[in-house]
Every structure is written in structure tokens, then in C-alpha cells.
């Protein structure tokens, strides 16, 4: 059951090192499956550390808080994030789909609409009275009630066709998606209402997402899980009920701040809760804009990755300090790193053989955060692989060629799963100095 740490060597896609995000731009989709296939699911080495540093310092260091998430100056030309994420949900009809140019963006007050145009993800929307059917893992859409309480002639308005969707953002990765439960959506006949009486009535729509997939890995928890969920429902301003597949205590405990940042309501454990839940609408599946990406032009309210950062900062802000302590001013000052100024930089150490992968995961996101990205590529003599392979082995001599020859399996097993890096501090120091000089806008000191 539930999400577990993915096996580092199994279930990785095949393919070369080129990294593409396969975001598909919201329409059609680049055929990149097999190129950016599952490599990321065990960035235990440094990238996860980096990710954790940026997004969740608490995972790393409960005793020495490193506050990456402190207040951040709004960048020029953009207002600070509005708390009211969306429009049109105050008094107006419920707007479920916040995505520009989605076929579902203009759906009416009653109906089922699925957007399957994206390369990475399918999302379905149900507007109207929705009830769960636990036995078949279905969401049923009931026809609107006439003022008299009689059923309208709704047969004509909603197609009989049943929609099925697996709510995860890697739909091109078949073997993985097979493990994501399939949720069914269909229109119900009025006469089915008696068999599906509401046990729990919610006054907010449901978002169906999963705590499964690769969620056991931090990078994926954010990239495939929380960022997409945020993209999908941030405009609802927490007026949404998370109905979670593969729900488990680890997920709920580890990410409780994010869960309550997304929703004001209790989470529903969709596979184990056998009650009939009723909602004024439902969203099944989540949006995806690319690796750790938010494309402002694709959200109706021009959201950016900085807004997501602010969402995280809000969730993780430390308000556990008792008021007296704050007044005394005797607290040791917490270190505050980065992310304040637009000159901030993020330095990633890429182990031997994975510089493209490392860059593909974080470079774009770093730019979207208006920070400078710098990468330190470990050389063979810094890798523990020098003790495993003869010096002239292609694995050490030419990792790119080795990868081209032996594919993703080599990357997964050897470069990602099988090496440690000991930094050459001299060379690393040069990198740091270069970064520092650039940050100060000074000429780089020559050797
Ligand atoms: C609702 O009731 C009104 C008056 O009682 C009646 O005229 C109307 O036809 C009813 N509508 C339906 C859908 O039964
Ligand atoms: C709706 O469809 C069902 C099954 O096809 C039929 O029995 C029922 O009479 C229809 N209701 C109306 C109001 O047309
Ligand atoms: C989003 O950005 C576009 C282009 O910059 C602008 O035309 C539009 O008014 C913006 N929309 C909102 C809701 O701010
Ligand atoms: C390790 O390799 C790098 C790049 O090939 C080289 O610049 C560096 O001098 C080497 N360091 C040692 C200690 O051999
Ligand atoms: C990497 O370092 C850890 C901690 O020292 C060690 O347990 C592990 O076996 C090392 N792995 C390799 C491939 O050297």
C-alpha cells in the first residue's frame, strides 16, 4: 500500500541523458518519453538535497534552521502575492478549471469535461452535484434539481460515456501509471440517487490526487505532487477538499503544512473511506507545466514559480516561537540564506555522469525564481567510481559515451545509485569564488 521509497534500480525508463521536460505545452506533446523518463526518482545524492534545501529546510536540519524561506522581496514589476488566489469564486459560479485555453475552462454549471491534451497529465472536471461511489471508485454526477425538487430532464445534457482517469502527472510512463488507481467519472441517472445518499456533505469541490507514484522521493513529492496540485487548485483559495488515493500516514505527516496550505478541509482517504461523500464539483487529476515549472501564461491569474515559493514559505513559516521569546530578542539569529535578492544563486554539485540530468532538473526552475544557476560537475577523480573501474574504462573516461551505449540503466545503477563524491576543494573553491565575484558584480579574479 501507499507510497514507498522507489527502488533505485528498478522501473527506470530507458533513454539517453538529454533532459526535456515533456511539458507538452498544453497541447499535443513532444515525444520525449524515453528521453526524460523516470531518472529523477532517486536523486538521493545531491539534487534531492538541493531540492530539500530550497523547498523544505525542515527535512534536513531540525536543529539548525536554515531559513531559505524567509521573506522575499517582491521583484520589480510584480505585486506581492495576493492571498485571494482566484477570481470568480466569490458569489459567482464555481470556477473549477483555472487553465488558459483548456477545453474545460468554459464548462457550464453542470457537466463532465476532461482535458487529455497534455503530454504529462489528464485532468477531468465535474460541475454539479457529485457523489462518490466507493465500491467502484467512481464519482457520479447527478442532474440538477428543479426548484420543485423534481429531477430535471437531464438525460440529454450529460453524455452517458464514462470517463476514466489516473490522477498523476507522468502519464507517458506506463508501468508507473499502472499502479495509480483509476478513478471513474460518469453521469448518474436520477433514479440512482436513492442508492447514493450523502453520508457527508461538503461545501467545497473535491480534488482527487494521489500520494502514490514516486511521492516517497522528495523531488517527486514536489514535482509530481504538490506543485501540480497547487497549480490546479490555488485559485480556489483552500476551498477544496483533497480526496487522496494511496493515502498514508507518512505522507500526511510529512507534508501536513502543504496539505493544510492547499485545503481548509480534512483529507479524505479515498480508498478506505466507504462513505458517500457529496461535493458541489470535483477535479480529478492535476495540471503540470514542466519540471518544477509554473508557466504564468497558462494560468488565468498569471501565477509564477515565485508564487509557489511563497505558498511554500507560508506553509513552512515558523510561528512556533512563543511571543515572549520574540520580545526578548535574545534568540540567536537564525541564518538566512539566499532567495532574497535577484542576485542570489543556487549551486548544484553534479556527480560524474549526470550533469545533464542535474541541470535539467533545476536550471529552469532556478531561473524562474530569478536566481542564478551554477553547476559544479564532479570530475572522475572526485568520484568513488575511480575505485571501482579501471582508469581507462569508458565509465570514467567518457560518461556521455558510456551512457549513449548502455542507456538509462547505467545512469541509474552506476552514476546515480552507485557513487559518492569527494570534492576537490581547490577546484570547488574556484567555483565558489567565481559565484561570489559574479554576485558582487566584480570581475572574476584570475588564477
Ligand atoms: C414546479 O412547480 C411549478 C408550480 O408548482 C410548476 O409550474 C412547474 O411545472 C414545476 N416544475 C417541474 C420541473 O416540475
Ligand atoms: C432518462 O434515461 C433513463 C434511462 O435511459 C430513462 O429511463 C428515463 O426515463 C429518462 N428520463 C427522462 C426524464 O427522460
Ligand atoms: C497576465 O499577463 C498578461 C500579459 O502580461 C496580461 O495581459 C494579463 O492582463 C495578466 N492577467 C492578470 C490576471 O493579471
Ligand atoms: C582531477 O581532475 C581534474 C579534471 O580532469 C583536474 O583538473 C584536477 O587537477 C585533478 N585533480 C587531481 C588531484 O588529480
Ligand atoms: C557512499 O558513502 C556512504 C556513507 O559513507 C556509504 O555507506 C556508501 O557505501 C558509499 N557508497 C559508495 C558507492 O561508495
From TrEMBL:
GO molecular-function terms, A-Z: glycosyltransferase activity
InterPro entries membership: Glycosyltransferase_61
Keyword list, A-Z: Membrane, Transmembrane, Transmembrane helix
Protein name per Swiss-Prot or TrEMBL: Uncharacterized protein
Positions of region (Disordered): 1-28, 315-335
Compositionally skewed regions (Gly residues) per UniProt: 12-28
Sequence intervals crossing the membrane: 39-56
Amino acid at each position: 500500500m501507499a507510497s514507498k521509497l522507489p527502488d533505485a534500480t528498478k522501473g527506470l525508463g530507458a533513454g539517453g541523458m538529454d533532459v526535456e521536460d515533456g511539458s507538452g505545452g498544453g497541447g499535443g506533446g513532444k515525444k520525449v518519453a524515453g528521453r526524460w523518463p523516470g531518472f529523477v526518482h532517486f536523486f538521493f545524492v545531491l539534487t534531492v538535497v538541493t531540492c530539500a534545501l530550497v523547498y523544505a529546510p525542515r527535512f534536513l536540519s531540525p536543529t539548525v534552521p536554515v531559513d531559505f524561506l524567509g521573506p522575499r522581496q517582491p521583484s520589480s514589476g510584480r505585486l506581492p502575492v495576493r492571498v485571494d488566489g482566484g477570481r470568480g469564486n466569490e458569489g459567482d459560479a464555481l470556477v473549477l478549471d483555472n487553465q488558459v485555453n483548456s477545453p474545460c475552462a468554459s464548462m457550464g454549471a453542470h457537466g463532465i469535461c476532461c482535458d487529455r491534451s497534455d503530454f504529462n497529465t489528464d485532468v477531468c472536471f465535474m460541475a454539479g452535484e457529485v457523489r462518490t461511489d466507493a465500491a467502484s471508485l467512481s464519482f457520479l454526477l447527478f442532474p440538477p434539481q428543479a426548484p420543485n425538487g423534481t429531477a430535471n430532464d437531464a438525460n440529454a445534457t450529460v453524455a452517458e460515456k464514462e470517463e476514466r482517469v489516473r490522477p498523476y502527472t507522468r502519464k507517458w510512463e506506463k508501468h508507473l501509471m499502472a499502479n495509480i488507481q483509476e478513478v471513474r467519472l460518469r453521469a448518474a441517472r436520477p433514479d440512482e440517487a436513492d442508492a447514493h445518499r450523502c453520508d457527508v456533505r461538503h461545501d467545497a469541490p473535491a480534488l482527487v490526487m494521489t500520494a502514490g507514484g514516486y511521492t516517497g522521493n522528495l523531488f517527486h513529492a514536489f514535482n509530481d505532487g504538490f506543485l501540480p496540485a497547487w497549480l490546479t487548485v490555488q485559485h480556489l483559495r483552500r476551498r477544496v477538499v483533497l480526496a487522496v488515493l494511496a493515502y498514508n500516514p507518512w505522507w500526511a505527516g510529512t507534508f501536513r503544512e502543504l496539505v493544510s496550505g492547499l485545503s481548509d478541509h480534512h483529507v479524505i482517504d479515498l480508498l478506505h473511506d466507504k462513505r458517500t461523500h457529496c461535493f458541489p464539483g470535483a477535479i480529478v487529476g492535476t495540471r503540470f507545466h514542466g519540471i518544477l515549472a509554473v508557466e504564468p501564461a497558462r494560468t488565468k491569474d498569471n501565477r509564477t514559480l515565485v508564487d509557489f515559493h511563497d505558498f511554500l514559505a507560508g506553509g513552512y513559516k515558523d510561528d512556533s516561537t512563543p511571543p515572549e521569546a520574540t520580545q526578548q530578542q535574545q534568540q540567536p539569529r537564525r541564518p538566512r540564506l539566499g532567495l532574497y535578492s535577484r542576485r542570489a544563486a543556487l549551486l548544484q554539485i553534479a556527480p560524474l555522469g549526470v550533469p545533464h540530468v542535474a541541470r535539467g532538473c533545476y536550471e529552469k526552475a532556478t531561473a524562474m525564481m530569478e536566481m542564478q544557476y551554477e553547476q559544479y560537475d564532479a570530475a572522475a577523480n572526485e568520484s568513488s567510481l575511480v575505485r571501482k573501474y579501471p582508469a581507462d574504462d569508458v565509465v570514467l573516461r567518457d560518461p556521455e559515451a558510456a551512457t549513449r551505449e548502455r542507456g538509462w540503466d547505467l545512469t541509474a545503477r552506476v552514476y546515480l545509485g552507485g557513487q559518492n563524491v569527494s570534492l576537490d576543494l581547490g577546484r570547488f573553491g574556484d567555483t565558489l569564488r567565481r559565484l561570489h565575484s559574479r554576485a558582487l558584480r566584480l570581475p572574476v579574479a584570475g588564477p
